[in-house]
Structures are given as C-alpha cells and as structure tokens.
Hints:
CATH class of the domain at 7-195 and 226-262 and 329-357: Alpha Beta
Number of helices: 12
CATH topology of the domain at 7-195 and 226-262 and 329-357: Rossmann fold
Order of helices and strands: EHEEHEHEEHEEEEHEEHHEHEHHEHH
CATH architecture of the domain at 7-195 and 226-262 and 329-357: 3-Layer(aba) Sandwich
Strand content: 15-25%
Amino acid sequence: MRAEPGLVYMVTGGSGFLGRHLVRLLAEREQDITEIRVFDPNADPDLGSLNTEKLQVKFIQGNIVDAASVLEAARGVDLIIHTAGLVDVWMKHPSKRIWAVNYQGTQNVLAVCKELGIRYLLYTSSMEVVGPNIKGKHFIRGNEDTNYRIYHEGAYVQSKAAAEKLVLSANGMRVAGGKTLVTCSLRPTGIYGEGNPIMAKVYQTITNFGGRRLRLAGKGVEHARVYVGNVAWMHVLAARALQQTPTIVGGEVYFCYDDSPYLCYEDFDMLLLGPVGVQLSGRTPLPYWALYLLALLSEGLHFLMRPLARKEIIFNRYNLAVITTTFTVRTDKAARHFGYSPLVPWAQSWVRTLDWVQTLAGTHVG
Length: 366
C-alpha cells in the first residue's frame, strides 16, 4: 500500500540521530514522496546524496522554537514527522530551554498544521513519558494499555509527556481548509545504533576512567532496547497509516520494539563495548543506598561547579532509578494496526552498531 503520489514530508530534527536514519529510509522506501524537507539547526551533508530525479531532499536550517521559521519551512507540506527534541539524560541544559524545545516547539508545529491545513502529524515521543518511574516500580513485559503508576520528574520527562498529550489531544482538530488533523505518537524504548551520541559519550567517559564500568543494576533487572533502523521503519509505516487508515491510528500511541534482547543497560552495552576493551567491574552492584549517596554527591559537586562550567552529570539520581528499574515491552499493537515487523533483525543490528563502535575505538574486531 502506498500513499498518494507527489507528497511532501517534513522531518523536524532530521539531522539528528533518529532523524538521519528516518530521512534515509523514507528516501529509499517511499517512492511516491517527491520532497523531504529536513528542518534542523544543523546540516547533515550526507543527506544530499539522497537526491534523485524523482526526489528532492532539502535541508532547511531553523530552530523549532522559532514559530516563524517553522511556518515558512512547512508551506506546501502534506505530513510532518516531528522528531526534534532536546534529550537531557545528564542534566546539562536549563529546564527553560528543555521546555522551550520539547513543549513550545511542539506547540509551534501544531499551530503550523492548523494555519496551513496540514492534515497529518506523527510525533516521536519516548518510553520515559511512562517510565521507569523513580519509585522503582517495575514495568515487566508491559504494553500500551498496562496500568502503571507514572511518576514524572525532571524537565525532559515532564516536557515530553506534556508535548505528547498536546499532540494526541489535537487528533481531530480542525485545520485550514475545513480538514481535520490526524495524529499519533511513537514511544521508542532505549534506542541504540550507529551514530548514537549517548553511547559515544558513555564510551568516551568509560575510556577516561581506564576502560572500566561500574555495575549498577542488580540481578534480574532488564530493559527494552530497540535498534534505530527499526524505530525509523516504524515511523515510515505509521506515516503511511495516518493517511490510509486514520480512524485506526488517529490519537493512538505505540511503543517501538524489535527482537533485541532484554538485558540491563550495562550488560546490553557490554555486547557492543566489550569487544573494544571495556570491562564491567563486579558481579553484583554496590548496595542501592551507597549508589544513591554517590549520585547525590555527583549532583552536589555539579551544583558547586555550575558557576564555572556547565557540564553533564553522568551519574545522577534519576539515571540511577532508570538503570535499576526494569522496563520491558511486549506488544503487537503496531503490527496489528499498520503491519509493523522489525526491518533489521537483532544479529544485523548488533553487527552494524559494533562496526560503528569500533570506529570510535579505532579498532576492528574481525
């Protein structure tokens, strides 16, 4: 099944980690799209190679918090995939900036849809709008309908949750031309894959500490991970479904999933970092109270140093709660609603990511 010919897509954050994979996949798979607009503050020169006689990939430099630039970029667009967002797992950015990008930016996108009569909006959310929660309550093989007590803490999680609520509540909203807006939201679990800036930072930090990583998660803790190429593929299929079956997907949320193994963050990352020499210290973690005090100390030092330099808090209480709380997903909602199945199997996802990690390390493991 194909969308109508001659469609123009806009991908906000299209030069980012997920955005780059998504734009490339749209160019490869969606033959009826004639133009993809990459709206991002930063250009990705590699995306220019995707241009063909039938497809134009156009980079538009702009900031999602600038309503006027979003409006100009979206003129003539049929569908927006809104991936732009400020991820702040290490508390580097001020709350005001995070809310501006994640919430106000989404308000700007919705306003543009209304003014220009754009009918389709796909939002990239996060599993963290659900959890893991900071109370340590596990989410085990849950799905989109699982009853789970949500505790939002921190500007990133709160702003993403509020933005998703905006998008979903806008489903069915009247837009210019007497049309109605159709929206849905995708919630990736922990995304990994080549080009992941978080994994690059983790590897750099571990290397600075002699190549050893402290075990934090206890026995039995597991997390859902999903390969970036499969997240991008789900976006491609969801974008089709918004147009073809709006009464099914409109106003819905979907976890992004594939066949990546359920492991704690440390053990999963060791599948990729172990071959380049990273070692995991300890079979069992320190007591939780000790880890909590270390995280609190890390935050305190960061607070004292903040007037001198704004640096990430690599180890903080929120990250500790996420790492030590199980969050795994088992659902087939995306398969039932728009035919999703993973495009890239786990073995290939692992090889692709490992090849990239080896470039970071300057090695190749044959």
